[in-house]
Amino acid sequence: MDSEPPELITLSFLPLFFMISSGDISAIFILIILIICSGLVSGSEVAYFSLGPIQIKDLEEEDSKSSRRIMALLSDPKKLLATILIANNFINIAIVIVSDYLIGKLLGDTVLNAIGARFYEWMPIMQANTWSSLINFLITVLGVTFILVLFGEVAPKIYANMANMKMVRAMSLPLTVLNNLLSPFSNILVRWGTRIEDRVNSNYQNNSIREDLDKAIDLTVSDSDQSGQEAEILKGIVKFGDVRVKQIMKSRVDVVGIESSENFSEVLKIVRDNGYSRLPVYEEDFDKVIGILYVKDLLGYTVEGKDFDWLKLIRDQVLYVPESKKIDDLLREFQLKRMHMAIVVDEYGGSCGIVTLEDIMEEVIGDIKDEFDEDEEVEYVKLDNQNFIFDGKMLLNDVLRITGLPSDIFDEIKGDSDSLAGLIIEKIGHLPKPETEVEIGNIKFTVISTTAKRIEKVNLRIESHEA
After folding, report:
1. Which domain holds residue 253?
2. Least confident segment among 11-25, 111-125, 325-339, 423-437
3. Residue 355 and residue 321 in contact, taking contact as beta carbons nearer than 8 Å
4. Would the pTM of this model clear 0.85, i.e. be above it?
5. Is 172 found in the same domain as 66?
6. What is the DSSP string of 77-120?
7. What is the CATH number of the domain that holds 255?
8. DSSP alpha helix (H) spans, 123-242
């Protein structure tokens, strides 16, 4: 009884050796090639993304064809990973299709039914057709899956982990070809992945973690004035990476610049009256900034007459940044380029203001006053703990910091506005007249003064919820 099942199974599969045609042999050959390709593509994923800094440096210094291909692939790792995943999925789908064809040819219904009948005779715990279906499932699903996992994933990745440089060099040309062929698909996948990543980061990570950190900071500081200042600095550091240039820049209407047609005497007057160390120089209007004038460069020429050619002193290295740029990225750019001022441009390329290194620092440590800042130029007046008078141009970030209001209190209403005046206009939809009152939650705004184009002064009152 014990020796019977092997004989039955052998007899059942014996006809297969006589049923294989030349087409079936070709399909088997294609299946083997596809499994090898799957293994190479899967192994290349581990090989490329396990390269260490020393190996990458060696490739950069090598300057061969293969090293240049490798560095080109590594220059866009997201696209490379997308190409590998797409290629591997296409290959695996092809393996499943070819495997299904071979199993259907070699194990047709007649053979499966015969095997099922033999198993039924040996173990009559299930019907013959149930045995046939089970055997078909085990071969087509588990068998193909086992082959794919072993030869298409596990073994190649183990080898790639041990000899990543060999795998990287061997696959540099095939992956370059695949990267070009699959570029439309990989670009779409990368864009979708980036959008999802940004949305997840902005909606969950940034908001929830920042709120938790703010609460932790408030719990760990004491009630002294010095501790309060330290807490504000810590909160400024926490939200530093989320602040954009548009939120801290000096708007175009408040920028002090010099027109290139001004004579030298007028330039000296502008410098003395404003006390800035750097001034943008423009032609005709602020959209055509041609350089930055450093006041220290004028020190040796203060005795010159009004016809002195001061334009030769300006520096034409102008840094332009979009208003959506994060200020932590801008700080790094300032450090790398050794600059202190940038011209902020909008989506149409027009100049909409300037941002300086001091503006970035003030986001963390608060307002910085030097010997040239006049005390009377105060942008707000604190009447009491519930009443404040602000300039309309005051940034919402500064308003929230001064009043101690929650950082997200205006998020659902402010839209694209970053200033107090912009918030009010966003709420009511037009430029208000003096004495106009606007309520947002328990905050009441009263417009004190306006011009034809802007809101100048606003009273902010925090209404008490007490009965």
Report:
1. 243-365
2. 11-25
3. yes
4. no
5. yes
6. HHHHHHHHHHHHHHHHHHHHHHHHHHHHHHS-HHHHHHHHHHHH
7. 3.10.580.10
8. 128-137, 144-149, 155-162, 164-181, 183-200, 207-220, 225-238
